[in-house]
Design a protein that fits this description.
By secondary structure, this protein is an alpha/beta fold. It has helices at residues 4-16, 19-26, 30-44, 60-87, 100-104, 108-117, 198-209, 223-231, 278-295; strands at residues 49-52, 55-58, 93-98, 122-127, 140-143, 153-167, 179-180, 188-191, 215-219, 237-240, 253-258, 263-271.
């Protein structure tokens, strides 16, 4: 097992560029720093530092471990803060992870109310989703897919978000009340989630059910960029209804899709032991109210 303290020493050497500087930073002697590095190299069986001029530079293995050391130190600091907060019966911060559309549509309208109700809680909003890795630092995770929630987490359904067709204004279907998905089979398509995501797979599966595979001629990474391509007449795209407020309404036409309608589900996932904390519970309630408003559109 790797020694965390030695990893911290390695990180300091890597970031300061020399054993002497790391010794000064950590309050050790250069000899002690060298001993820690030597011991860590024995533990790993890898050369972690090499001479470079008057200092040292990390090998690929050294950079890898230093990167992990940064994350470990951050997690330890977060654990110490959380423990301190628990001991005094409160949490002074709330970390929320979210996907892009939620960050643009669902969350901004509720921040002011939350801050007014909990002025002593630092709200930290971080882009990204998932239940493990770096995303695991969050108490609240807003996710745009159905997840298999492991023990210790609670998933709350916010809304089902149907996809709509985004068409050039002059398109023959642009003035229709609805459009069958199969009617778009002969169109050129603008991809709006590349590389692939579960939302993209949902759309492609729906197209398959309608009897065709989309002919993607443009790869875009988000809905706004895809709509800009649509506005020029290059093709069509489909986006979740929740994202329509992000698009230039005068530049494209948006028509609900039927037979079949691709739908994504949006959830908020919270850590079970923290679910009843006032600040966390209030934020979830505000999210649900915001989702109800959009679901009713």
């Amino acid at each position: 097992m790797l020694d965390v303290h030695r990893l911290v020493v390695l990180r300091s050497v890597v970031e300061t560029g020399s054993i002497q500087a790391a010794a000064t930073h950590l309050g050790y002697t250069p000899s002690a720093i060298s001993q820690h590095i030597a011991a860590l190299q024995r533990e790993t069986g890898a050369l972690l530092l090499e001479r470079h001029g008057r200092g040292v530079r990390p090998t690929e293995e050294g950079r890898l471990l230093a990167s992990h050391a940064r994350r470990i130190q951050r997690q330890i600091a977060e654990a110490e803060t959380a423990l301190s907060d628990l001991r005094v019966g409160k949490s002074r911060r709330l970390i929320v992870r979210y996907f892009a559309t939620a960050g643009a549509v669902l969350i901004p309208p509720i921040v002011a109310e939350f801050d007014g109700r909990f002025p002593d809680v630092r709200l930290e909003l971080r882009l990204g989703k998932g239940l493990t890795g770096e995303a695991g630092d969050a108490e609240i995770m807003v996710m745009d897919d159905t997840v298999q929630v492991p023990a210790g987490l609670r998933a709350v359904h916010l809304l089902d978000d149907p996809f709509v067709a985004v068409l050039p204004p002059g398109h023959p279907l642009a003035t229709e009340e609805t459009v069958e998905l199969g009617a778009l089979s002969g169109e050129q398509w603008i991809d709006n989630e590349w590389p692939t995501t579960l939302c993209r797979e949902t759309v492609i599966e729906a197209c398959g059910a309608a009897g065709f595979t989309p002919d993607f001629v443009v790869e875009a990474h988000d809905y706004v960029a895809a709509a800009a391509f649509v506005a020029t007449g290059l093709g069509v795209t489909v986006v979740p209804r929740l994202a329509l407020g992000l698009l230039p309404a005068s530049a494209v036409a948006c028509v609900p899709i039927i037979r079949p309608t691709p739908v994504r589900s949006i959830f908020v996932v919270v850590k079970e032991p923290l679910a009843d904390r006032p600040a966390l519970s209030a934020f979830v309630d505000l999210l649900r109210a915001a989702a109800d408003t959009h679901a009713g559109h």
